[in-house]
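Support reply, case 0932

Customer input (verbatim):
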Amino acid sequence: MSDTPAKPVLLTGASGALGRVLVKALGALGWRLVLTDIAPFPDPLPAGAQFTKADLSDGVTILRLAEGCGTIIHLGGVSVERPFEEVIGPNIRGLYHIYEAARREKARVIFASSNHSIGFHERGESLPADTQFLPDGYYGLSKAYGELMGRMYWFKHGVESVNVRIGSATKEPINARMLASWMSYGDFSRLMERCVLTPAVGSVVIWGASNNSRMTWWRDDSRVALGWTPVDSADPFAGQLAGAVSGDPVEERYMGGAYCSIDYSRSAPPPPVWGEDDV
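Our regenerated output:
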């Protein structure tokens, strides 16, 4: 199997932290990259890459950038919790433009989803990939919507998608929660390679975390089908981070961490788990 895709890859959000990591990694492999972001790209472009400053709300430009591309790695959009009106444009309408471009080009979408789409699950749970969405804010809600859009485009139009529920993709873990949720830059880049190069994927979910011994929250995803196994681990940081907790009972109870506490106004927490009889 070739380690270079036959067609160029469109990468949105190229100027963000993960985008820059990925541009460097995939550029080093000789991939042809079409890069875009609302912010200028701050690094030297690798050979064979081109950058266009664009807003995700500009559907015509997104369609043009996707021409001839076989995969769209969609990292773009609002990447933290923000008010609804700031999220809806790039993360909802912008995602629609991405999927319409993929439908026209018969391209695969790699969607940067998030653990915040299931953030109000408790840390003591062990979740399969098909668990119910419990978003912890407007950002997480947009990621749940994005995964559902991918499923619709798969069943209705045959557009393949990989939804990567990224845990905590940072250079190093910085608190006790990340001893479970951390994803190294190396594991992230290697996963993106497999998402692009695997011959057929359908519409699947991957839990985006490294090989952390404390990562007991998430299970039963499609990594085997992609041929991806994380190799890095947060375990070496356990000694220095085991006591790095917030003291906030809401933050420490739920998988979504601090995002769960933003604008939290319940006087009492909800039941740990509920089903149809409780709705």
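We compared this against your earlier run and they match. Two observations from our side: The chain is about 35% helix and 15% strand. The chain has a mean pLDDT of 95. Please reopen the case if you see a mismatch on your end.
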